User: What shape does this take?
Amino acid sequence: MLIRPLRSVHELWLPDHHTLVLRSGLRHASQRVALAHGVGHAALGHADDRPKHEKQADQFAARNLIDPDELADLHRWCPDEGRLIQELGVTRRILRAYLAE
Assistant: This one.
């Protein structure tokens, strides 16, 4: 894994080099999500970033970052999406990918 000043993306999976590049300067939750998303691309054998692969990598990240019991407990006392993503340490996109499964 490398950390570099990427301009337009948070992470970049380079399958030919078996390397994941994360954008420098990301906040903790965004870095955590970018790492899980990139690992998803690697684990799923993706060679490109077509929309289908992006959705699959988001779902992979969501399954690995969100504990269903924790989400259920949090949702009981605070159903607000903004608060949930803060408490879970994920992004809105990843929470929505989890809920869409």
